[in-house]
Design brief:
The chain has about 550 residues and is of the alpha/beta class. About 40% of the residues lie in helices and about 10% in strands. The chain has an eight-stranded parallel sheet. The protein is globular.
């Protein structure tokens, strides 16, 4: 027999075997009735194989009937195979097993200590460590907080240093939102609503809310999608709402916008977002209420007035650095200064993002946070504005490092998702989340027990802040907010070490306002920044 014919038979061997076994079992069942069951199984496989070779949609199953389906099966469970069988403890895909295990342990109240030393390669480029003191400080209280609200704010908020980042109802299930909010209530920290509006599940938990307003103005929109001052006033008046956050962009897909298809919109989602059933729910890439920096500040001022003086701020992932300096100039020109700014890094997560955006658009959190912090220092505004940081912050070390770069507090989305059972299956966009976190499937989300998971949320928060306090104490500090860049050292590629102050220095206060001040790499962008427009000022 020719080689080609042999290979052809091999490709069809599963189908031929199914047909032969079907015939054998059918004949055998005449004498042994129990063989009728395997007959049905092999008959179904034979029918599947015959269908495979007659269809023209999938080449792999046409060439490899029956066995070709294993390819699709393995592709479906690839994240789980990698996580449980292949992935090392330190492999970040996107969170390492070590990081996930830490969250699971702290949320369950299990032992989170490690025997036998570090698994880090301490002599590898990029390794970062905290410098410690021979006179450590002991803490009895780990409830660390920061006051958010400038001189124009009538109702400042005393926020925890570690809160739940923006995740919308619709992206997360009802049970997930309930568990997170009830956990926030138990632990005394804040829960960002995400841009999907305030749902009944946010309200029933009673936890403090940060009401995020995106470009779709969900929960405070007119029928045409424009901003509704009346509806916003009604939402912001709720005592549960402690801060208002205008979303300009998010790290996972900055400048992209999004859409929730009509097929995924339930009556409850429609109620929370204020959108009609049967229509796609669109979040435009840009806001319609402002088109330049001054208009943006005026809109923030309007939100502050309509909210009765609650803390007002905005969230963004840094893109064109000049555009942020345009906002800073608009603050100076209008006198309208936000109470806070949340800096999201490109390493942030979302339910679904185009690969190019997730991988290659936006500034990472470390650089973005340092830039915002120093820009505000340069403009003399840093003492009026609190800065939040978001982007893969799940451990006390992550939080401490972010604070050394200028953050006043930190937010986490995926960390708190892990605390309620997320296994990083990366099926958030499919509606097939295996643990009921990121799905609207009623049966799947029933697996998430709200009472148990809410306690895990609170424990994760408490144990993380305890670890943060212990790290601050080890450094000889009396408050985690006292971390500075020089408390951290990093291994360079040549094997030497560099102090954090060299990589991410704090620049002088007011240097942008002084024509004779230093450049520090900011001066050219500052000169091209324009309070009246996001377009660059042409240089002579």
């Amino acid at each position: 027999m020719a080689v080609k014919e042999i290979l052809t038979l091999q490709r069809y061997s599963a189908l031929l075997a199914a047909i032969v076994l079907t015939v054998i079992c059918l004949i055998g069942s005449l004498w042994a009735g129990w063989l009728f069951v395997p007959f049905l199984i092999f008959a179904a496989l034979a029918a599947l194989g015959l269908r495979d070779i007659s269809q023209d949609r999938h080449a792999i199953t046409r060439n490899y009937p029956i066995i070709g389906h294993f390819r699709f099966l393995f592709e479906t469970i690839r994240p789980e195979i990698r996580q449980y069988l292949i992935e090392g403890d330190k492999d970040e895909m996107p969170f390492s097993r070590e990081a996930r295990s830490l969250v699971y342990q702290r949320s369950k109240g299990d032992e989170d200590k490690r025997p036998f030393g570090t698994q880090e390669n301490v002599y590898q480029a990029g390794y970062t460590w905290l410098t410690h003191s021979v006179m450590p400080v002991h803490f009895d209280d780990f409830d660390f907080r920061v006051k958010i609200g400038g001189p124009d704010c009538k109702h400042p908020y005393n926020a925890s240093l570690y809160n739940i980042s923006a995740m919308s109802f619709g992206a997360l299930s009802a049970n997930a939102i309930s568990a997170l909010n009830k956990g926030a209530k138990l632990g005394g920290f804040a829960h960002d609503t995400g841009e999907g509006g305030i749902s009944r599940y946010h309200r029933e938990g009673g936890g403090d809310l940060i009401y995020e307003i995106g470009s779709g103005y969900f929960g405070c929109r007119n029928d045409d999608g424009s901003f509704s001052p009346e509806k916003f006033t009604e939402q912001a008046a709720d005592d549960q709402v402690k801060m208002i956050e205008l979303k300009l962009s998010q790290g996972a897909k900055p400048g992209h916008g999004g859409m929730l298809p009509a097929s995924k919109i339930t009556a409850e989602i429609a109620e929370a977002r204020g959108v009609p059933m049967g229509e796609d729910c669109v979040s435009p890439a840009a806001h319609s209420e402002f088109s330049n920096p001054i208009e943006m500040m005026e809109f923030l001022g309007q939100l502050r007035a309509l909210s009765g003086g609650k803390p007002i701020g905005f969230k963004l992932c840094i893109g064109h650095r000049r555009e942020f300096l345009c906002m800073v100039k608009a603050m100076l020109k209008t006198g309208i200064v936000p109470d806070f700014i949340v800096v999201d890094g490109t390493e942030g997560g979302t339910g679904a993002a185009p690969l190019e955006f997730a991988n290659h658009v936006g500034m990472p959190m470390v650089e973005g946070l340092s830039f915002v912090h120093n820009s505000l220092r340069g403009a003399g505004l840093r003492d009026r504005i609190r800065i939040g940081a978001a982007g893969k912050l799940v451990s006390a070390f992550d939080i401490a490092h972010a604070m050394s770069l200028g953050a006043d507090w930190c937010n986490s989305a995926r960390g708190y998702m892990f605390s309620i059972g997320c296994i990083q299956a990366q099926a958030c966009h499919t509606n097939h989340c295996p643990v009921g976190v990121a799905t609207q499937d009623l049966q799947r989300q029933k697996a998430l027990h709200v009472g148990d998971k809410s306690k895990r949320v609170a424990r994760f928060h408490a144990n993380t802040l305890k670890a943060l306090g212990e790290m601050a104490g080890a450094a000889g500090l009396h408050d985690p907010r006292d971390f500075l860049p020089y408390h951290f050292m990093t291994r360079k590629s040549d094997g030497t070490m560099t102090e954090g102050q060299e990589a991410n220095p704090y620049l002088p206060m007011g240097f942008l306002l002084d024509d004779q001040g230093g450049d520090y790499g900011y001066r050219s962008r500052w000169n091209r920044a324009n309070a009246e427009s996001f377009d660059a000022v042409p240089l002579d």
